[in-house]
Design goal:
CATH superfamily of the largest domain: Vaccinia Virus protein VP39
Number of strands: 18
CATH topology of the largest domain: Rossmann fold
Shape: globular
Structural class: alpha/beta
Number of domains: 2
Distance between the termini: 52 Å
Order of helices and strands: HEHEHEEHEHEEEEHEHEHEEEEHEHEE
Strand order of the largest sheet: 3-2-1-4-5-7-6
Bound molecules: S-adenosylmethionine
Strand content: 15-25%
Amino acid sequence: MGQFTLLRAPQVANDKLRAWDAADEYLINHVAEHYDAAGRVLLVNDTHGALATVLHARNPVSWGDSVNAFHAARGNRQRNLIDAPLTVVPSTDTPAGGFDLVLIKIPKTTALLEDQLARLRSLISTDTIIIGAGMVKHMQKSAFAAFEQLIGPVSTSLAVKKARLLFAQFDAELKVKPPPATVTYTDPDLGFALENLPNVFSRDRLDHGARFFMTQFSRLPDAHEVIDLGCGNGVLGIYLQTLQAESAVTYIDESFSAVASARRNHQRRFDASSESVPQARFVVENALDQQSDASADLILCNPPFHQQHVVGQQLATALFTDSKRVLRNGGQLWIVANRHLPYPQTLKWLFGHCTAIAGNDKFRILKVVKR
Ligand code: SAM
């Protein structure tokens, strides 16, 4: 297979985490031993591009929900002097079939897996080899059930370095009940509907932190250029624009399905109403990578605390650091966070101060002003 240098994306300071896991290694070794290089290969949820890099000679197509995963794959291929462009397909689209070998890193969210498997059916044949891979401790029963109910009979490998492979045989005759493409709810505190694609944070109900955050929105400053950072289904920005119709909000998330849901929810909330439609932009991107310095008056953020199965504060710290660059002087960053997280210290270190706006037994709302 050769030797490769692999890094994660986004790259954070002092990142000690590897860009691959034992499930990637197991999958790569298994493919090298058992399948020759012929045929079209589809990679699903290749989190840091390890598969797209090591299996580059098979010219794979990469399908997934994370723009950071695509950044990582492209970065790692470049780093290893692989010139061929990588074809990537966001989760909101379906790749053009058919495929001979499909390698699936089992995602944390079973709803995403179900949606992917249901759509995979039209891209494969009974000759297609379909292999799922994951760390044993993360492989939920619901993932096995999803393969059985949406693809066909399943068998599993022995565990190697605590990783396992899952082999699914496509049954073209299987009676399949496709999972719902979206889940919709209307929370009484909001008064408008939220329609969410698979993999969107708080897909089935409003997040408690977001709910608490919005109780304080009447205290937000009047702002023209606003960013809903890590927008998920867009709930924070849409609620703000309900209160401040003059604001222009940029909705940003690294998940394709999140940004598509935010766009859809913004349309649902405002397009049919008699009020004028507040200005909105929708961007799939890592953090504020595409935003100019000193361009925003207000940033709202309910920060992420994990990337797939990895929990940590580096992601939030990177978002706060970027916010400082993108805020104008006098601009404000407001966040909601679990009260056990040491974000006040991080924000004080970055901005020189931090004000607690409100708190309850679980959450704190924090504000900083760029000076
Ligand atoms: N704002 C929504 C809410 O309050 O319900 C979602 C908040 S959720 C805790 C955090 C969001 O940040 C997720 O939608 C996740 O996809 C997004 N996210 C994680 N890492 C990100 C990154 N590097 N850049 C942009 N968005 C990111």
